[in-house]
Specification:
Elements (H helix, E strand, L loop, with lengths): L1 H10 L16 H10 L8 H5 L7 H30 L2 H6 L4 H46 L10 E2 L2 E2 H16 L2 H25 L1 H4 L4 H24 L1 H28 L1
Antiparallel strand pairs: 1-2
């Protein structure tokens, strides 16, 4: 929030503010696909639903948490993007793409600002990793209870679902073998597919859950369109990223198919 406050103040009189003019914008399709790449930044919202068993009065508090958090984060992200583009030259943004927020703090706060934002980014990353691992382990546990994964996933190690250890191990392997761009693309494609299916399920079960049909229906349609657009754009830029994303998804479906076939045969 301090970055936003100082950043908005620093925009006044900054020569780079002209870069926000529509004449510098990319085509609508590129803007859409760029948004889908960073869609993984919104992945954390699903953790709200994953934590439903630990939330008091979930039917009331979960929708409230979603609406307020999503609206707040969208506004915050737009402001941060505007501050970054208005504070740095495009060439600087391209050079500092891995630490661009820290670089954007330099014109306003100097070297101290760069250091503070870097530390804040590390803390934020650690927090996101912990939240994702927590949610992932809960998902493995709940799916195993529903007999969609082997019952071994319901076991606990050090009072935590064993899925936490498995998820952590796979994550360490992936981040050390794949490029950041490949991980981001695969993550965005995977989450768009998951959110599309979840929204479609909400549409089909709207009567049972007492929800509106229109919201999940539009959600499913837009998620599917966004996923296809992202794949088309990235196929022309980096075919490897697309193959990795689709490979991970196909691998998950194949493993689930093999498990269900084996389970049915044993039964």
């Amino acid at each position: 929030m301090a970055f936003v406050g100082f950043g908005l103040y620093g925009l006044f009189g900054n020569p780079h503010i002209e870069q926000m003019s529509p004449e510098h914008w990319e085509s609508p399709f590129k803007l859409l696909t760029a948004g889908m790449v960073i869609f993984v930044a919104y992945e954390g919202f699903e953790l709200i639903a994953n934590a439903a068993p630990d939330i008091e009065n979930p039917k009331v508090n979960i929708p409230r948490a979603y609406y307020w958090s999503v609206i707040f984060v969208i506004i915050l992200y737009v402001i941060i993007a505007a501050i970054t583009v208005g504070s740095l030259d495009f060439s600087q943004i391209a050079t500092a793409q891995d630490y661009v927020l820290a670089e954007a703090a330099k014109p306003m706060l100097g070297k101290i600002g760069f250091t503070v934002i870097t530390i804040a980014a590390l803390i934020s990353t650690f927090s996101a990793i912990n939240a994702s691992l927590y949610g992932g382990s809960k998902v493995n546990y709940e799916i195993a209870i529903d007999d969609e994964l082997p019952k071994e996933f319901t076991r606990k190690l050090w009072n935590q679902p064993i899925g936490l250890l498995i998820t952590s191990g796979v994550t360490i392997i992936l981040v050390n073998t794949l490029k950041l761009e490949s991980i981001s693309t695969a993550g965005s494609v995977g989450f768009l597919l998951i959110f599309a299916v979840v929204n479609y399920t909400g549409f089909k079960l709207s009567k049972e859950i007492g929800g509106k049909k229109s919201i999940p229906l539009f959600g499913a349609i837009f998620c599917f369109i966004a996923m296809i657009a992202l794949l088309i754009q990235h196929y022309s830029v980096s075919k490897l990223d697309v193959f990795i994303a689709l490979g991970i998804i196909v691998f998950c479906f194949v493993m689930e198919f093999i498990y269900k076939k084996t389970e049915n045969k044993n039964t």
